[in-house]
Amino acid sequence: MLHTINKSPFESNILETCIRFLQPGDPLLFIENGVYAVQAHNRFAMLIESVHRTNPIFALQPDLSARGIMAILEGVETVDYEGFVDLVEKHKVNNWL
């Protein structure tokens, strides 16, 4: 199952809630303000890195660019809109709003 997070972890606890439901191998995609979670050197870095041990992590590049985020955590793969669509086509989606 693909999990998408669109809220900043600095304003919502959706990230922590989502992680409790992740199954090994479930991809996690950060979109909109959710991309703040994968910005390098933030307080959520260790949490994201621990999730990455068992789950692929993606961030939507246009949302990173729109927020001026240039440095992201190691192991986070960026995707464009086409990559986003590919992920949605391959997986059932759970949107964490």
Provide keyphrases for this structure:
single chain, 97 residues, alpha/beta, five-stranded parallel β-sheet, globular
> Can you list the strand order of the major beta sheet?
4-3-2-1-5
Major sheet: 5 strands, parallel
Shape: globular
Beta strands, count:
5
Pick out the low-confidence regions: none
Q: Please state roughly what percent of the residues sit in beta strands, choosing from under 5%, 5-15%, 15-25%, 25-35%, 35-45% or over 45%.
A: 15-25%
The end-to-end span amounts to 16 Å
Give the C-alpha Rg: 12 Å
The run of helices and strands is: EHEHEHEHE
Helix content bin? 25-40%
Structure write-up:
The chain is an alpha/beta fold. It has four helices and five strands. It has helices at residues 14-21, 45-52, 61-66, 81-90; strands at residues 2-5, 28-30, 57-60, 77-79, 93-96. A five-stranded parallel β-sheet has the order 4-3-2-1-5. It is globular, with a radius of gyration of 12 Å.
Give a short summary of the structure.
Helices cover 33% and strands 19% of the residues. Strands 4-3-2-1-5 form a five-stranded parallel sheet.
